[in-house]
Automatic annotation (TrEMBL), chain A:
SMART domains according to UniProt: Sm
Gene that this sequence comes from: LSM2
Protein name: U6 snRNA-associated Sm-like protein LSm2
Assigned keywords, A-Z: mRNA processing, mRNA splicing, Nucleus, Ribonucleoprotein, RNA-binding, Spliceosome
Main location: nucleus
Region annotated Disordered, chain positions: 86-120
PANTHER family hit by this protein: SNRNP CORE PROTEIN FAMILY MEMBER, U6 SNRNA-ASSOCIATED SM-LIKE PROTEIN LSM2
InterPro entries: LSM_dom_sf (IPR010920), Sm (IPR047575), Sm_dom_euk/arc (IPR001163), U6_snRNA_Lsm2 (IPR016654)
GO BP field: mRNA splicing, via spliceosome
From TrEMBL, chain B:
Gene that encodes the chain: PAT1
Listed name of the protein: DNA topoisomerase 2-associated protein pat1
mRNA decay factor PAT1 domain span: 132-222, 320-730
Subcellular location: Cytoplasm, P-body; Nucleus
GO molecular function, a single term: RNA binding
GO annotations of cellular component type: nucleus; P-body
Organism placement in taxonomy: Eukaryota, Fungi, Fungi incertae sedis, Zoopagomycota, Kickxellomycotina
Source organism of the structure: Coemansia asiatica
GO biological process, one term: P-body assembly
PANTHER family recorded: PROTEIN ASSOCIATED WITH TOPO II RELATED-1, ISOFORM A (PTHR21551:SF0), TOPOISOMERASE II-ASSOCIATED PROTEIN PAT1 (PTHR21551)
Keywords, ordered alphabetically: Cytoplasm, Nucleus, RNA-binding
Taxonomy, superkingdom: Eukaryota
Ranges annotated as biased composition (Low complexity): 248-261, 294-307
Length: 120, 735
């Protein structure tokens, strides 16, 4: 949830979203969700001439999976805090992994034991 | 869709499709909340509400030209063909043409607007037209638009009453057809769906999951809307919680964060996950309603942000609240359900992997929290043990052979050493984060000291502090490995950054130990090893920039806590540290670096201050023995620097030939000034004779007029630091 949390702080800021199909859209970030889908307000396409169909579009919804880059403005980002948040995220995923590992290991060994037991 | 591409004055969109769509929307009398809100939004403050009221625009059923359902269903409807076929159906609007012409579209040639030609253009043609018009009339539009628009609208209104009635009839018909199948889902159904979606989002540890957003908003202060008063602190740990009201639209995107405390977890959950669209609309509606209400309610003024939890929590604050409207009560119901979901989720956490008994392998359940990995990274389980394997190899050698291999500690396996240091830095970070988290929770603890929760907190706090301290490894000033672990720690910029945060939690003794270690190993610090001002490195290069950055970071992050400590200790400690500094480091070499100069300045300054009659630290009067000792030390320092005073200044012209800014020698002047304070007459003579050239050079530069006035003043001020300490002044210098 780190990126989701991060983008929540970017709501209201000017961002430029570059998509995997090379379309770059600049606009005000209106909202973001858990899948990092973006809603942009008052957009303008960076390279106007290539995409005339976007001329009249004002707001758009971008599916998170098609985003390649999101360009932000540096003053809005607190890098030290971001580092801390990333560390916490890493810790919590580590904990989750540790929690999920032992039980499955146990079940695997019991499964093998029963299999061998039944065979022999 | 609004065609504001051409300027703000023109309200009508340019393409037929958008035209119809926007006009259709403005005419529907929709009872459905969502659509109504969308209409409101799209109307864009009714800028062109008037124009769109016109019936003339509202003739077609979007793209299908009044085709019946029977025509459309059952086969693949070819929109393109249909459009081409029905081109002629578009009536010739003379008024429309006039409008378009008046709005600045050039009517002379054939580019008289989209509909003015009486044809329906295909998409490609529309685009081509737009590009054409864009190039031709970039500025012509906004100028004449407003008046002409008004006149055209006026003429429109006086159209046939009969036609108007007919059009209205048709409109009502269409609307009825469309809303025949409304309300397919009951309220229960909708809430069911919402519940499912929200349950995906719920977290049982908002402090960890939403950490960045939360802390960011705390640190930046938050947006406070009009008429919103600070919430009464509801067992929160952050007294800085301000009532947050984001504008209704963006509040849907930014769930207004609540207090961080776990006690308000419910609120937090609810506020975290308001992203469902319907809910957004509800909330927008709700907050739009609430604002006027909240102004009037006595006592508690709501945050008009989208926080369901608030209402639930502050239910008892509803003083004189009027009878709840429909949406409000539905909101209350929804939030109760979310409550239930929250408790469920907390009770039964979902695992990321599902492995059935007897099955070989596990099925991973992908959610937003553990997404499908595009790149599979194999966790090397022995990654941590690499460094551990090295320790038994490395250190017994060093221990056995005493100091013979001290220089080899680094070279034996530099990669492993580096990783070990990085690992310990990360451990310190973990511990410090834990400490900070505990501090945040501290405010929530009950006041009586023997409460078990308090005891628990104290133990946890102590543990974390211990961990941080042992990882830092600063307790032994002198170690067997070269360089000292602390010096290695500080050679990374993130190591430097964590020091001030850590020092905040350390005890005085620990800070003393840290300072001692730093001083004892000063020479080996990377900032000193950079050499004074990198004679061999071009001044504009990346390496030089990085060096400067590291030095600055050191001066700003590591020095202040130690210096603060120094300026408050007794003379005995100051003397001890002074002696240690001079003993362990080659003073003449080290003073070419800024950190060393800063250190010495503070040391000297402190000892000078303490030598004043009547000075005492911690209520203990200064011992004459100590004063004697400090004078001895001073003399020692002076003698070791004799002949080298000029070298403490940065080079005026670096090796690359660029002139270094004249302001960089401030620290050198400060040091000289502090030195001069404690100098005897003879020593002062020595000082002056050695740096006379430098002084003259600076003063000449300041007076010459080659530099701007403020820089000249600063230059003189710097030199005066030194000269005033001697009792002289820059103005006395004979030019």
């Amino acid at each position: 949830m780190l990126f989701y949390s991060f983008f929540k702080t970017q709501v209201g800021q000017q961002v430029t979203v570059e998509l995997k199909n090379d379309l770059a859209i600049q606009g005000t970030l209106e909202s973001v969700d858990q899948f990092l889908n973006f809603k942009l307000k008052d957009i303008s396409v960076v390279d106007e001439e290539r995409y005339p169909h976007m001329i009249s579009v004002k707001n758009c919804f971008i599916r998170g999976s098609v985003v390649r880059y999101v360009q932000l403005s540096p003053p809005t980002v607190d890098t030290a805090l971001l580092q801390d948040a990333a560390r916490r995220e890493a810790q919590s995923t580590q904990q989750q992994q540790q929690q999920s590992k032992p039980p499955t290991a146990a079940t695997n060994t019991t499964a093998i034991a029963t299999a061998t037991g039944s065979v022999s | 869709m609004s065609g504001s591409f051409f300027g703000p004055g023109i309200g009508l969109p340019d393409d037929a499709i958008a035209l119809e769509r926007s006009s259709f929307r403005s005419h529907t009398n929709n009872n459905d909340l969502d659509a109504r809100l969308e209409t409101m939004a799209l109307r864009d403050t009714g800028e062109f509400g008037d124009a769109l009221e016109e019936e003339d625009l509202d003739t077609f059923n979007d793209e299908t030209f009044d085709a019946d359902v029977g025509e459309i269903a059952g086969k693949e409807f070819d929109f393109f063909q249909n459009t081409l076929d029905n081109r002629d159906k578009v009536p010739q609007y003379s008024q429309q043409a006039a409008y378009n012409a008046g709005a600045g579209f050039s009517s002379s040639d054939n580019s008289s607007g989209v509909l003015g030609e009486g044809r329906v253009l295909t998409l490609a043609e529309v685009e081509a037209k737009l590009m054409q018009q864009n190039q031709q009339n970039p500025l012509a539009m906004p100028l004449g638009a407003p008046e002409q628009m008004a006149s055209v609208a006026l003429s429109r209104r006086t159209a046939d009453a009969e036609t108007i009635a007919k059009r209205r009839e048709a409109r009502l018909q269409r609307q009825m057809m469309l809303s025949k199948y409304d309300n397919m889902m009951s309220r229960h159904d909708k809430e069911y769906i919402i519940r499912i979606q929200i349950s995906q989002l719920l977290t049982d540890d908002p402090a960890a999951d939403d950490f960045y957003c939360h802390m960011y908003q705390l640190s930046r202060g938050t947006m406070v809307g009009p008429g919103v008063v600070q919430q009464p602190a509801t067992n929160t740990s952050d007294s800085s919680v301000v009532g947050r009201s984001v504008t209704p639209r963006s509040s849907a995107g930014t769930p207004a964060p609540a207090a961080s405390a776990q006690g308000d977890r419910r609120k937090h959950y609810l506020q975290l996950h308001k992203k469902h669209h319907q809910e957004q609309h509800h909330l927008q509606q709700h907050s739009a309603n609430r604002r006027p209400n909240s102004q009037g309610s006595s006592g508690d003024v709501r945050r008009s942000s989208s926080s369901l939890g608030n209402q639930h929590h502050h239910h008892h604050h509803h003083l004189g609240r009027p009878h709840r409207s429909n949406t409000q009560s539905s909101m209350a119901r929804m939030q109760q359900q979310v409550q239930r979901i929250v408790n469920e989720a907390r009770r039964r956490p979902k695992a990321a992997h599902v492995a059935a008994e007897g099955a070989l392998g596990k099925i991973s359940v992908n959610s937003a929290r553990n997404p499908k990995q595009v790149i599979q990274v194999q966790q090397r389980s022995h990654a941590g043990s690499i460094s551990q394997a090295d320790i038994p190899r490395g250190s017994p050698m060093v221990h056995d052979l005493g100091g013979i291999f001290t220089g080899m500690g680094d070279a034996r396996n530099p990669a492993a050493e580096r990783r070990k240091t990085l690992r310990s830095i990360e451990n310190v970070y973990t511990a410090v984060l834990r400490l900070e988290q505990l501090i945040r929770e501290q405010a929530r603890l009950p006041p009586n000291a023997d409460h078990p929760a308090v005891q628990n907190w104290l133990t946890m706090y102590g543990e974390a502090k211990e961990r941080a301290w042992t990882e830092l490894d600063a307790s032994q000033p002198i170690s067997n490995t070269y360089p000292h672990p602390l010096a290695r720690f500080l050679s990374f910029s993130k190591g430097k950054r964590i020091i001030p945060r850590l020092v905040h939690h350390l005890s005085i003794d620990q800070v003393l130990a840290l300072t001692t270690t730093v001083i004892a190993n000063f020479e080996t610090l990377d900032v000193c090893r950079f050499g004074s001002f990198s004679y061999s490195v071009a001044s504009g290069s990346m390496v030089a920039a990085r060096q400067k950055e590291e030095t600055d970071l050191f001066l700003h992050a590591v020095m202040p806590p130690t210096l603060a400590f120094l300026s408050e200790t007794s003379l005995q400690i100051v003397n001890g540290l002074f002696a240690l500094f001079m003993e362990r480091n080659n003073v003449a070499w080290v003073t070419r670096t800024r950190p060393a100069l800063a250190f010495l300045t503070v040391l000297l300054g402190r000892s000078a201050a303490l030598k004043q009659p009547g000075a005492h630290a911690y209520g203990v009067p200064v011992d004459s023995q100590e004063i004697y000792q400090s004078s001895e030390l001073y003399n020692h320092l002076f003698n070791s620097l004799r002949g080298n005073f000029l070298s403490i200044f940065p080079p005026s012209v670096s090796s690359a030939g660029h002139a270094v800014s004249p302001m960089e020698d401030l620290h050198a002047w400060q040091f000289l000034a502090t030195l001069a304070i404690g100098a005897s007459v003879e020593q002062q003579h020595t000082l002056v004779s050695e740096v006379r050239e430098k002084v003259l050079e600076r003063v000449m530069l300041a007076k010459s007029g080659h530099v701007p006035v403020d820089i000249a003043m600063a230059l003189t001020a710097n030199v005066n630091l030194f000269l005033n300490a001697l009792g002289l002044d820059a103005s006395q210098v004979a030019t």
